[in-house]
Write a structure and sequence with these properties.
Blueprint: E1 8-14, E2 19-22, E3 28-41, E4 47-59, H1 60-69, E5 75-88, E6 95-109, E7 126-127, E8 134-135
Parallel strand pairs: 4-6
Antiparallel strand pairs: 1-3, 1-5, 2-3, 3-4, 5-6, 7-8
Length: 153
């Protein structure tokens, strides 16, 4: 049987502050929801916005980044895989299902949040992409007379 592909890319806003917990083995887990929006015309030709909600789960170092930097309203770009869990409800005995996106790579968008939680659009020179801090090197063009003030963002 041929190998399949299970990959999801989502760009949206976090719907609630992440819930942080640890597994019995000590692995950090962050869970939240992500809203994506789509715009379509209805039968009368009017534009209608449709929001889709996704359950997102991050583990380990990525969960630490989520804990430290992600709040309700944060814009994220997520790459992950789709997973559906099932369990028997204790009260009703019914089979329950939950579809989640297991985060493999995470990019924070929209700049650093200010004290009110809104994005200030300003960067500290670091990108928190793919769950690992990455320093942006500004000295590469120092010999060409380009300074930080020349950069428009």
């Amino acid at each position: 049987m041929a190998k399949g592909v299970n990959k999801a890319f989502l760009l949206g806003h976090v719907g609630k502050d992440p819930e942080i917990r640890s597994t019995t083995g000590g692995t950090l887990v962050a869970a939240s929801s992500l809203a994506t929006a789509d715009r379509q015309k209805d039968q009368q030709g009017n534009w209608q916005d449709k929001t889709e909600w996704h359950n997102i789960i991050a583990f380990g170092r990525t969960a630490e980044i989520v804990r430290d930097y992600v709040k309700k309203g944060t814009q994220l770009l997520i790459e992950g895989k789709i997973q559906t869990r099932s369990w028997d409800d204790r009260e009703s005995g019914q089979r329950k299902y939950r579809t989640e996106i297991i985060v493999a790579e995470l990019t924070l968008l929209g700049g650093r949040p200010d004290e009110s939680g809104r994005s200030s659009g300003h960067s500290d020179g670091h990108s928190r992409a793919y769950g690992q801090p990455r320093t942006v090197v500004h000295d590469e063009y120092a010999d060409q007379g380009i300074t930080d003030e020349d950069i428009p963002f």
